[in-house]
Amino acid sequence: MSGKHNIWGGPLEINVEEHGLWHEEEEEEEEEEEFRRRRRGLDRAPYEAPSDEVKQRWLRRPDILEKSKSSSSYCNKSSISTLVCLVTISAIIALIMKLKPHYHPPSSPTLDNYTLALPKALLFFNAQQSGKLPLNNNVSWRGDSCLKDEQVGGYYDGGDSTKYNFPAAFAMTMLSWSVLEYNQKYESALELHHVKYTIKWGTDYLLKTFTAYANSTTTVASQLPSPTTKHNNKCWIRPEEIQSPRPASHCTTCPALAAETAAALAAASIVFHDNEAYSKKLIHGADVIFRFATQGLGDKYSGGADPPSLVYNSSGFWDEFLWGGTWMYLATGNSSYLNLITSPELDEKVGSMRQSVLSWDNKLPGAALLLARLRMFLDYGYPYEQVLKNYQNKIDDIVCSYLPNSRKFNRTKGGLIMLNHGNPRPLQYVVNAAFLAKLYSDYMGALYVPGIMCGGKFYRSEALEDFARTQVDYILGKNPEKMSYVVGFGERYPEEVHHMGASIMSEKGKKYGCGGGWKWRDRRKPNPNVIVGAMVGGPDKLDGFNDLRSNYNYTEPSLAGNSGLVAALVALSQNATPNNGIDHNTIFYSVRLP
After folding, report:
1. Closest by alpha carbon to 428, among 534, 581, 525, 334?
2. Fewest CB within 10 A of the end CB: N or C in the chain?
3. Domain count, the chain
4. Catalytic amino acids?
5. What does the pLDDT look like over 467-476, one tens digit per residue?
6. For residue 214, is it left (φ>0), alpha (ψ between -120 and 50) or beta?
7. What is the pLDDT of residue 382?
8. Residue 292: which of 204, 207, 210 has the closest Cα?
9. Residue 122's domain spans which residues?
10. Residues of the chain by 3-state class (helix, strand, coil), percent to 5
11. In this structure, how many other beta carbons lie within 10 angstroms of the beta carbon of residue 522?
């Protein structure tokens, strides 16, 4: 083949045999290029030049060439014919230009803010990793840390180097739930592998907090380090500098923590159902820790509550029994769990709890929606129907309280619903409510249910989605401060995040020690390290925000908060599956109707 190339960028000659071949190396390069395009969110299809055969036809049209020659000869015969010659040549040029295809570059899809923010929100979990970091951690200012902990690994909860297992377990449960409902959306956003990796890092650690490999356990770790440890809240120090051993706090009676841990492991076992060995390991651990939580008595449990905590106190455990039992049923299909979660006695015990606000402490709204899903998508009938209906009535009341006409919750002038009644750190509750509302709306859409009755007034299911959208839009920057409360998203976001690792300069070989880091906390300059994706505590009831590192109520992120954010973002994302809805069946992978 000749080395000549034409104006189209390819050889003029055509090799028929080569023309039809696809080489493995070319395929790999094209796949890598496609992945990079999608990762950037551009999804631009490359312009395919016309084939060599077509180009040669354009260059070799005999009728046009003959006309061109005769016209040239004609022009040489007589100057009188100059005008005719020019007209003829112009016509030929116009004909060629008409035959030439005009390239109109395809318009690149415009990704919505929820899809754009999703990978950032997940990246926050990378920044919170403890222990020996994997090569794909992708947070340049983080390194291996706390390698002498009693249990190595897991996630730091917020701005310091403490690992609280109660909210961490809740965070993993929420992430798993979002994957089970919106698996295809994660895949479309190229974040499915990332979120599953995030969940596994968390569940691997939870399995270390009790004797998950045995048939029973007598204790579970609640936090690390214990409150008496030197580096606990007395130092402002990068976790990478902590070299001393850190013991954990353990409890022998902690039904809420244990049941939440069971929920996290059970939910994750469904996420990883295609990894049979790991899924079975998770289910076994979930069974062990749930029996430890309830002492094998279920709704007849008469033991004590969880011991008090300085930060994450549980206000009760019956909601965790309901939440954990529901996930155990979904993960195993064991009818004993179904009997527990539909028992009138348990329904009565959780019925008196506050209902509306899903959080690391209150699981009733989440459990009620899951039980409503059982009723909506599966036909259980007697004797389960009445209790399942009660829980659907509860979730109806809960989402109705989020709508603008409800008087249960006030809103700021900027439109943020005050689910914690004006107290600090409101956003962690808002994102959970947004997720619940959008998910319930999608349940209705999947079953062609038009809407919901709230206090005698009918609301279309879109009203729930509108609520979720306006609340998350507020968090992403549509607020009086015109500030995104997700770090690294938008043009303006918090710069003095309350976070030890992000606030202290990461310099190779440089250590500041326990006391040397306080100067970094107290200085009024942006953090030297940007903790991308962290959702901070949020504004006050007047929509005001104080970007001050020392004020954790405004500027500290948390695992529980970001898990709700991730769930809400993927639920609202639109550049995904054709029907843009939920995965109907995966959550029921192990369920068999009684």
Report:
1. 534
2. N
3. 1
4. 547, 556
5. 999 999 999 9
6. beta
7. 84
8. 210
9. 113-315+392-578
10. 50, 5, 45
11. 11
**Which CATH number covers residue 475?**
1.50.10.10
In a domain, 233, yes or no: yes
Any domain includes 72: no
Spans in the chain with pLDDT lower than 50:
1-28, 31-32, 34-80, 100, 103-108
Q: For residues 118 and 186, what is the distance between their CA atoms, to the nearest angstrom?
A: 9
pLDDT digits (tens, 9 = 90+) for 480-497: 999 999 999 999 999 999
Q: Contact, 454 vs 403, CB < 8 A?
A: yes
Q: Determine the 3-state secondary structure of 535 from DSSP.
A: strand
| Inside any domain, residue 525 | yes
Token couple for 428: 């962690």
Rg over CA atoms, the chain: 30
Is 307 among the domain residues?
A: yes
List helix spans (H) across 343-426.
344-351, 364-377, 385-400
Hey, what's the torsion of the CAs at 397, 400, 401, 403, to 10 degrees? Answer: 180
Question: In the sheet that 220-224 helps form, which strands lie side by side, from edge to edge?
Answer: 163-164, 220-224, 249-251
HEC letters along 440-460: HHHHHHHCCCCEEEECCEEEE
Q: Which amino acid is at 588?
A: F
